[in-house]
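Worked problem 6 (solution included).
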Amino acid sequence: MSSRRVQMMVALVLTALWGAGVYAGHANGHLRFLDRLEATLTDLRTQVRGVQTPPDLVTIVAIDDTVVKRGGSYPLPRADLARVVDTIVQFKPKVVAIDLLLVDRSAAIGDATLANTLASGPMVLAAAAIFPSASETVEPSSQGPLAALPQAERFLLPLPAFADHAEVGVVNVATGQSGSPLSVPMLFRTRDKVELSFPLRVATRALDKPLTISPDHLMLGDRAVPTDTDFALPITYYGPRRTIRTVSAQAIFDGTLNRATIENRIVVIGAAVAGGGDFYPTPFDSLMPGVEVVSTAITHLVAGDSIVRDRKVRIADALCATLLPMLLVGLLAWRRSALGIIAAAALMIAWAGLNLFAFTHGVWLNAATTLAAAVPPVAVFAGVQLWAGGRRTQYLAAKSRTLAQFQAPAVQEWLARDPNFLSKPVRQDAAVVFIDLSGFTALSERIDPDELQDLLKGFHALIDKASVDSGGMITGFLGDGAMILFGLPSAMPDDAARALKCSIDLYRSVDRWIASLPPAMRGQLGFKIGAHFGPIVASRLGESHQHITATGDTVNVASRLMEVAAQNCARFAMTDTLLDAADFHGAPDGILTGPLLTQVRGRSGIVTVWFWRDRDRPSQDAAKAEMID
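Solution. The predicted structure is:
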């Protein structure tokens, strides 16, 4: 196994451990800062989902500012509350739920009147759980699944005179780090008893179905109510305050209450008095009365439209927190280029879209935990990639400079025979051939240096063989390309013909060599050849390190012909000057097309260009347009 694969495996394992650790830490009550982030993201998702029309099951009778102004005091006197309840009972509701803590005695006549009124209809009264600190705590217990319930020190119950005529439910809600209620506990416990929540008690009475407590959910009759791990019901708001049907209790005192808003409905009586303290921020409203939060939970229970965040969703969260970071790091490692970054970004966008889609369709996938699991390892890995990429670029640049320091063997032989060879510049006619690999730069960013070296060695060996067989001189390897001269040490009549033969041999040998490479390389590489004949200036350049080179218009044209070839979906482009000098009129094993009159960069005037391709592979050039490095 290559070192790169080992590094990639180590990165994936560490990423998986990080993601699993983040999820486990948050699930066990640590990393509480993620709750605030999740609350913010939940508010955003709720706002994106938009306002929804709630099932028309509940009517809130609000003891609001209008009522207080009429009565002159708050809390509402018990006699007035009795009048409100009595009027509602006469309109035949399914159940009357009083979201007010009736724990203190008041005027005896008022308490007696209210007690008698409570006995006249189906009633549910609110109780409160008193916890040892500001936050609800959970202590180890041997009660099985009930061990996860919020454990209170005691319950603050209504006065016995009231509780004897009604059912009782605990009205506490669970607020997130942002202060917005995200769930309502369905069950509460002290050390010796378990109590139902106020919304659950109301829903059970309204539906008139038995309640069954299962290990990971509740059953209302034959319908399952999915809850979170601690039997909390996640809630999502339908809209701003008064989205659930709300009437002022003043309508009762004025005698204007519409019977249709009460009859056969769940009626929740609660406070909506400014400054009353029972208000919460929600995604749609900075101050929503607690009675509407409770009514939202009741509606969810009765209608069965609550957002799902149960054990299965928690498992999905754990998988996302573990697998998403691994996939992102894997993509960045697989494609160490812009393509890898684009693929990773596309995956993140897809995950965000899926998360939002699930939320708007009633499934609450945790976003904050997954982000905390994914962002740090991806950032670290990307940073390491950039650092390693810089080192790799430096390494390849140094390797290219090292290769350029070595002359071809034929040049060394000539210099050995004549140390003064080209000590002075020489002007003469010569044929110039350029060859260059296409796609090499992008490929070099994704393969190991050893593989890159082997690739270059194979390519250079082909160039060396073709030039030696044709009697050409390689003036230097240009990393992934080479320049070959025909006309040194002295001009020969067949220089153009040998340059043409060398170009055709290179065409075929490099084509076969690319076809023999692994698919991942073969699909990325191509080549292009340019050849021209004309006057050059040959010389030796450099002081401590000298090399033989050729300059002039002929060299420039030969080099630019590679661009012309690529632009015309060809691999080998040559000038009519070379064809004429080589006395070449075509061959039975190749196809010559042209002429094309064009301009090349760095030269004024028109150049007549011909293209050659192998007859045995007629579709190669047309099927694959080469990329210019």
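Discussion: The longest strand covers residues 526-541.
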